[in-house]
Every structure is written in structure tokens, then in C-alpha cells.
Automatic annotation (TrEMBL):
GO terms for molecular function: CCR chemokine receptor binding; chemokine activity. One of its GO terms (cellular component) is extracellular space. This is C-C motif chemokine. Keywords: Chemotaxis, Cytokine, Disulfide bond, Secreted, Signal. GO terms for biological process: antimicrobial humoral immune response mediated by antimicrobial peptide; chemokine-mediated signaling pathway; eosinophil chemotaxis; inflammatory response; positive regulation of cell migration. Belongs to the intercrine beta (chemokine CC) family. Residues 24-82 form the Chemokine interleukin-8-like domain. Residues 1-18 form the signal peptide. The lineage of its organism: Eukaryota, Metazoa, Chordata, Craniata, Vertebrata.
Length: 87
């Protein structure tokens, strides 16, 4: 039940916005408050400038989108790690 609640929360915090060119843009309206396990994370993207809140969106290995605050130290470390792995 805990994972179901967590998954539902994550899906409620991500909004997909359509841009004029037909591209989908993802925005976050809240972020996780606790560190997620790095082993669950596959990649990331940053929200665009049209979004009301700056955030990092981690994509999990199971296909979920998780919004995180880019100012948190663990988020910055995950980004550095993922950037190194993609080289």
C-alpha cells in the first residue's frame, strides 16, 4: 500500500503541457521531500522555462516520473552521476 500511495502522489505532481509545436512539456507542482534510491533512477530532465516551478524530473526504471528540487544536494549528486554514466 505504501508504494501505491507513493506512486499515486508522483503521478499527481507531474503535469504534461502541450506547446504550440506539438511537443509535450513536463511541469512539476510539488517535489519529493525524501531522497529516492539511486538504483531506481534511469535518467532525468529539467523542467522548462514555461513551468511555474524549477524542478528535476527523474525517470525511474519502471517508467514513473518523480519531481525533485534541484537545490537539494542529493539531486545534484544524482545529476552528476547520471551525466557521467551517459558519457
Amino acid at each position: 500500500f505504501k508504494w501505491f500511495s507513493l506512486a499515486l502522489y508522483f503521478h499527481l505532481t507531474v503535469l504534461y503541457l502541450a506547446e504550440p509545436a506539438g511537443n509535450m512539456r513536463v511541469c512539476c507542482f510539488s517535489s519529493v521531500t525524501r531522497k529516492i534510491p539511486l538504483s531506481l533512477v534511469k535518467n532525468y530532465e529539467r523542467t522548462g522555462d514555461k513551468c511555474p516551478q524549477e524542478a528535476v524530473i527523474f525517470q525511474t526504471r519502471s517508467g514513473r516520473s518523480i519531481c525533485a528540487n534541484p537545490g537539494q544536494a542529493w539531486v545534484q549528486k544524482y545529476i552528476e552521476y547520471l551525466d557521467q554514466m551517459s558519457k
